[in-house]
Every structure is written in structure tokens, then in C-alpha cells.
Automatic annotation (TrEMBL):
<dbReference type="Pfam" id="PF00583">
    <property type="entry name" value="Acetyltransf_1"/>
</dbReference>
<dbReference type="InterPro" id="IPR016181">
    <property type="entry name" value="Acyl_CoA_acyltransferase"/>
</dbReference>
<dbReference type="InterPro" id="IPR000182">
    <property type="entry name" value="GNAT_dom"/>
</dbReference>
<protein>
    <submittedName>
        <fullName>GNAT superfamily N-acetyltransferase</fullName>
    </submittedName>
</protein>
<feature type="domain" description="N-acetyltransferase">
    <location>
        <begin position="125"/>
        <end position="261"/>
    </location>
</feature>
Length: 261
């Protein structure tokens, strides 16, 4: 892709998934207030700023306004900052206002038709679609083992999505016999051209065997079958080189800035 294509693709991503964001689950709302687009959910869901179009004169007031809004609801929230967001010192302003930055990731996008999608799971491992509570439990188990993090929110969100709006999420778990060894999900926004890849955690001891690649390929085929053109990933330093080899392009950085009342 040329640099012009990068710019156009990033603008399309911003327009469809950030400025034009839709609620990511039942009981969730997206609000547009001034030059900020935010999502408001329960304390277990994802709360935060998805998009902003701020200049230096308006930034501090907009930050204070979001803090007041979420604090008034008793909610911690995230300001999802991208490397091309303005003003250029928005990250510094967020830190000065009391936000804590989490590790930076890389926004990567791949055009599905141009990706290398022939990856198969290693021998003895099979990819199983998640359709109900038993599968959700397996995904949550992998999440806890792979990331060392509580998975209560993931279990609740996946169950709600599969029950209320199953066309907006695809979840899979890789099984070695009866043992779940990797899991991932894909979020689908109706009418958008981008499908989002999330999760992608593999239990230690099973890493480096190609399972992550196989789960990317599985979800890519599922997205293509549903008419999506692009895949979008917030890639860690571990997954970025794998995704680049599959044909994904790094476009910008993304950093979660978290505010806890």
C-alpha cells in the first residue's frame, strides 16, 4: 500500500469504527457530545472515549467534561488515544488530568483478500466455535491462564452478546483433547467494512506452535463469508510480527489512558 492508501484507510477506520461507533453490546449506549464520541455501559462493560476532534483551545475542557460525566456515574473509564489524534500533546494533557497510560499497542489493518490465510492448527489441536455457556467458560479459562487476569467481564459480555445479538460476535476456542489451549473472538459491526480481532490468548506451553495464526485465519474466513473487507487488530509487541507476516499493515499506535475515580 502507498502512503496515500494508508491515510485513506486510517480515515475510513476513524469514520466507521470511532466517529460512527455503535454500542458494543446490549444495554450499552454511544453518546455524541460536542467533539467527543463516548460509550457508556455498566461497571462490568467497556466505558470510554472512542473518538475526539479537539484543538489545543478545547482539549482541557473536553477532558474535564468527560471526567465529570463518568465520575458522576461512578464509573472508571478509558480514553482510547491513537497516535494521529489531535492535539499532538493530548496524551500529556490526559496524564496531567490524572489518567494512567497502559502499554502502547499498534493498530494493524489487513485487507482480507490479500492476507495469507492457509494456516492450520497443529496436529492434535482443533478449532471449535463458541455458541453457548460451556464454550464461553472455556474462553474465560484460557483468558485467565494466558493473561493472568480476571475474566468475569469477558464471560458476562460474551454471554450477553451471544444471547442478544449473536451476529455481532464470533468466538472460537482451540482444544487439545479436552484442554482449552487458546481462544479468540471477533467483533462485527453491521454495515462497517472492518471486523475487529480481539483476545488471541494462548496458554503458556502451547505458544509458538502456530495456534494464534490458525485462529486469525479462521476468523478471517468467517469475516469474509459475512462480507467484511478488512480486519483490524490492536497488536501487542508479541503479535505484531506474526500479523505482519500474514500481510497486516501497521497504521498508527493506540494507547489506553485509564481514569479511576
Amino acid at each position: 500500500m502507498t502512503q496515500v492508501n494508508h491515510t485513506a484507510l486510517l480515515a475510513l477506520f476513524d469514520r466507521e469504527l470511532r466517529e460512527g461507533a455503535r454500542p458494543d453490546g446490549p444495554g450499552v449506549r454511544v453518546e455524541r457530545t460536542g467533539d467527543v464520541v463516548r460509550q457508556v455501559a455498566t461497571a462490568q462493560g467497556w466505558n470510554g472515549v472512542l473518538w475526539s476532534a479537539l484543538d489545543e483551545a478545547a482539549a482541557d475542557a473536553a477532558i474535564a467534561g468527560q471526567i465529570a460525566h463518568y465520575t458522576g456515574l461512578g464509573l472508571a473509564f478509558e480514553w482510547k488515544l491513537y497516535g494521529h489524534d489531535r492535539p499532538a500533546d493530548l496524551g500529556q494533557r490526559l496524564r496531567a488530568a490524572g489518567f494512567r497510560p497502559e502499554p502502547e499497542e499498534t493498530l494493524m489493518i489487513g485487507e482480507i483478500a490479500a492476507l495469507s490465510l492457509d494456516a492450520e492448527p497443529p496436529e492434535g489441536v482443533r478449532v471449535v466455535p463458541v455458541t453457548g455457556p460451556r464454550g464461553v467458560d472455556l474462553v474465560a479459562e484460557v483468558h485467565e491462564k494466558a493473561f493472568g487476569a480476571d475474566s468475569t467481564w469477558l464471560r458476562e459480555e460474551l454471554l450477553a452478546r451471544l444471547s442478544a445479538d449473536p451476529d455481532t460476535v464470533v468466538a472460537v476456542v482451540a482444544m487439545a483433547g479436552d484442554e482449552p489451549v487458546s481462544a479468540a473472538r471477533m467483533e462485527l459491526v453491521p454495515g462497517a467494512r472492518f471486523a475487529g480481532l480481539w483476545g488471541g490468548g494462548t496458554v503458556e506451553g502451547w505458544r509458538g506452535r502456530g495456534i494464534y495464526r490458525a485462529l486469525v485465519a479462521h476468523r478471517a474466513h468467517a469475516a469474509a463469508a459475512r462480507g467484511y473487507r478488512y480486519l483490524q487488530v490492536d497488536a501487542s509487541g508479541q503479535s505484531r510480527p506474526i500479523l505482519e507476516r500474514l500481510g497486516f499493515t501497521p497504521l498508527t499506535t493506540t494507547t489506553p489512558y485509564v481514569y479511576t475515580p
